[in-house]
Amino acid sequence: MLELIDIHKTYEKQPLLSGISFTVEAGETVCLLGASGSGKSTLLRIIAGLEQPQSGQVLWDGTELASVPAHQRNFGLMFQDYALFPHLTVAENVAFGLKMQNLPQGEINMRVTASLEQVNLSGFANRHVTDLSGGEQQRVALARALAPRPRLLMFDEPLGALDRALRDHLLDELRGILHGSGIPAIYVTHDQEEAFAVADRIVLLHDGQIAQADTPAEVFARPVSGWVAEFLGLGNVIEGKWLGGGRVETLLGVLDVDCPTEAGVGASVTLLIRPERVKITGNGNSLKGRVADVLFQKNGFRVTLENGLYFYLPIPPQVEKMLSFTVEAECLG
Fold it and tell me: Is the torsion defined by CA of 211, 216, 219, 220 positive or negative?
């Protein structure tokens, strides 16, 4: 098991990581999700032993790794650019790390074959990587990472260079391969759809701190802050003032909200209105708004009102039309 305890790191005298603590259990895939500059790649490099934290501990099964160099940690690391050797065959690329371990040739051949089978590339051993597609090269890089039988696999934006259709296809394959191998993994990405597809647990980073850490389903259902909800694109985040009695005053009007709070009257609260909770008819908070923009998307039309509220309709309304609708809001935090 990997455990991080209170990791701190600064860059150009500015805090980059501030008190990061989490664990990765056996067989678990944990996704570090956050915007560019949130510190996720730096954290991965600290775990790999390529950088040192200012303070804090990285432990494996309770043993401190500070004095263990990167090449002795037995962690596999895979980057976005794959870092394959263009002059070598697929098999030679996969075997590279095994040769560095001075394993017998018979053992190397067995592991190369097994690793290529794991990533569905049996029969590709003698092909040159320059003759492969981007998706095939990605799988060669994964086979190379799997071949040394690492204690932990780490991925830094591994699918960032691929188009969306290929990325979606490979995500399904990657999740199956990781679960089949039983090797714990840390997966770094800025793409929430990618994170939700591959992760057993998400660690969401913001300004060098953990904004939320939980299963994908729990993060989606119960974001802990307005920032989390906005970053994940969950819906409309609005600020309001608590009036007591389940009522919140907002720019949209006074809304009835099931909002368990110990805050006094007049306290600030943050609300989330998910697009699917906005209905043209139905029960809830009754509001009106004028249509400012209509944008076609593959599952319908995104309708944005002049007050900034957005939701989706199967049929597009006219711009500048006044709509009556109901909303259900939920408290955050």
Answer: positive
Any idea what DSSP says for residue 267? Answer: -
The rounded distance, in Å, linking the Cα atoms of 192 and 200 is 13
What's the DSSP call for residue 258? B
Domain end point (choices 169, 199, 223): 223
Q: Tell me how many degrees the CA angle 234-206-273 measures, rounded to the nearest 5.
A: 20
Q: Report the number of distinct structural domains present in the chain.
A: 2
Q: Confirm whether 95 is domain-assigned.
A: yes
Residues 61 and 196 in one domain: yes
pLDDT digits (tens, 9 = 90+) for 59-103: 999 999 999 999 899 999 887 777 889 999 999 999 998 998 889
∠ Cα 297 303 306 (to 5°): 145
User: 230 lies in a domain?
Assistant: no
How many beta carbons lie within 10 A of that of residue 85, not counting itself?
12
